[in-house]
Design goal:
It is built from 16 helices and eight strands. The protein is mainly alpha-helical. The chain folds into three domains: about 220 residues, Rhomboid-like (Rhomboid-like fold, Up-down Bundle), CATH 1.20.1540; about 25 residues, no CATH class; about 50 residues. A hairpin with a 7-residue loop joins strand 5 and strand 6.
C-alpha cells in the first residue's frame, strides 16, 4: 500500500492546485484547526452546542465555524475531499463566489436547524444532554448539499455499474447508510445524521427556490422535484405532501410561486411559458442527445475505416495493367509496313496491325 501513497498524494496536489482560492482557503482552515485540536478543544469552542447557540449565551459564531472543525483524520479526509470535489465539479459551472455562498448557506442552515431541533427535543424530554452534550461539527452537512447539487447537474451519471447506481440516488443512499450506522450504534451520536439530513434539505431548498442564474431564480424542473429523492413507489405520495407544504409556504410569503418557462429558439425572440417544462431540463436532455449522437457517429466512422473488397480488386487490376509493356506504332510495325507479330509474356502470338505506312488509294 505504501507504493500507492505517492501517486495518491500527487493526484491530490494536482486536484487542489486546479481549484480556486476559496477551495484552498477552506481546506487550509480544516487542516489548521485539526492540528490545533491536539492542544485545544476546538469542537467545544467552534462547534455548535444547542444550549450555547441560543440566548442567553448566543454563540452565533459557531454557525460559521462548525463546518471546518474536525477531530479525527478520517473526518478531515472526508471534509477536504468534499470541498475539492465541489471545487472541481461545481465551481466551473457556478463560479467561486456562488460556491462560497452555497457553502455558507448550507452550513449556517445546518447549524440553525440542528440546534433548534435539539432544543425542541429537550422541551419534549427535559434531558439536558440534548442541550449541552451534543456537538454539531464537520462537513457532513455540506456533503449532503454537494450531493444534491450534483444530482441537479449530472444526476444521470452512473456511479456504480454492478449494481447500477446513478448519482441522482446518492443523497438518499448516504442518508440510509448513516441511519443504519446509527441503529447499529457505530455512530455514537445522532448529530452526524442530523447534520447530513439538514444539509440535503437546505441545499435542495436553496437550489430549488433561491439560487440566482442567467434564467432567473431557482430550478423548477421535474427531475429536481422533492419527490425525485425517493423511490418511484413513494413519489406520488411524497409529491402530494410536498405540494401541500409548498402551497402553505407560498400563502404565508415564505416561498414565492415559480413559473416554469421554456425558451424556444426561433428567429424572433419569443419566450413561451409551458407547463411542466424548464430550460435546465431541456438543456440536460439536449446534452444527452448530443452525447448519444456523437457515440453513434464514432461507431459509424470506425466501421467505415475498414477497406472494401471491391477497392482491393480494382487496385490489383491496375497493378496488372501497369506490368504489361505498351508498344508504340513504330515498334509494332514490320519493316514491310504490314503486320508484325509479337509474343506475349505467356508465349502466345498477337497480331498488331498498323496503318501508318500503308499506301493510300488515290
Amino acid at each position: 500500500m505504501n507504493r500507492y501513497l505517492p501517486v495518491a498524494r500527487q493526484h491530490f496536489l494536482a486536484a487542489l492546485a486546479s481549484t480556486s482560492v476559496v477551495v484552498k482557503s477552506i481546506c487550509a482552515a480544516v487542516l489548521l484547526l485539526y492540528l490545533l485540536s491536539w492542544a485545544v478543544d476546538t469542537v467545544y469552542v467552534l462547534g455548535v452546542t444547542p444550549g450555547y447557540l441560543f440566548p442567553p449565551n448566543f454563540w452565533i459564531w459557531t454557525l460559521v465555524t462548525h463546518a471546518v472543525v474536525e477531530q479525527h483524520f478520517v473526518d478531515v479526509a472526508v471534509s477536504v475531499g468534499t470541498v475539492i470535489a465541489a471545487g472541481r465539479l461545481l465551481e466551473p459551472l457556478w463560479g467561486a463566489l456562488e460556491l462560497l455562498i452555497f457553502f455558507a448557506v448550507v452550513n449556517v442552515s445546518v447549524g440553525l436547524l440542528a440546534g433548534f431541533s435539539y432544543l425542541l427535543t429537550y422541551v419534549a424530554t427535559f434531558n439536558l444532554d440534548y442541550l449541552f452534550a451534543v456537538r454539531v461539527h464537520g462537513m457532513l452537512g455540506f456533503l449532503g448539499g454537494v450531493l444534491v447539487a450534483l444530482k441537479q447537474t449530472m444526476g444521470d451519471l452512473t456511479v456504480l455499474r454492478v449494481p447500477q447506481v446513478r448519482l441522482k440516488v446518492a443523497p438518499m443512499l448516504v442518508l440510509l447508510a448513516l441511519a443504519v450506522l446509527r441503529l447499529t450504534t457505530l455512530l455514537e451520536s445522532t448529530a452526524p445524521l442530523a447534520a447530513y439530513g439538514y444539509g440535503v434539505l437546505s441545499g435542495w431548498v436553496y437550489l430549488r427556490f433561491y439560487q440566482k442564474h442567467s434564467r432567473g431564480r431557482g430550478d423548477m424542473s421535474d427531475h429536481f422535484a422533492f419527490a425525485s429523492f425517493f423511490p418511484e413507489i413513494l413519489q406520488p405520495v411524497v409529491g402530494l405532501v410536498a405540494g401541500l407544504v409548498h402551497s402553505v409556504l407560498v400563502k404565508i410569503k415564505v416561498c414565492r410561486k415559480m413559473v416554469k418557462r421554456y425558451d424556444v429558439g426561433a428567429p424572433s425572440s419569443i419566450t413561451i411559458s409551458l407547463p411542466g417544462t424548464d430550460p435546465q431540463d431541456a438543456e440536460r436532455r439536449r446534452q444527452l442527445a448530443l452525447k448519444a449522437l456523437n457515440e453513434r457517429l464514432k461507431r459509424v466512422e470506425d466501421q467505415s475505416a475498414w477497406p472494401s473488397m471491391e477497392d482491393e480488386e480494382d487496385e490489383d487490376e491496375d497493378e496488372v495493367r501497369t506490368d504489361v509493356p505498351l508498344l508504340s506504332g513504330r515498334e509494332a510495325t514490320s519493316p514491310a509496313g504490314g503486320a508484325s507479330s509479337s509474343k506475349s509474356p505467356a508465349g502466345q502470338e498477337s497480331s498488331i496491325i498498323s496503318f501508318e505506312d500503308a499506301p493510300s488509294n488515290s
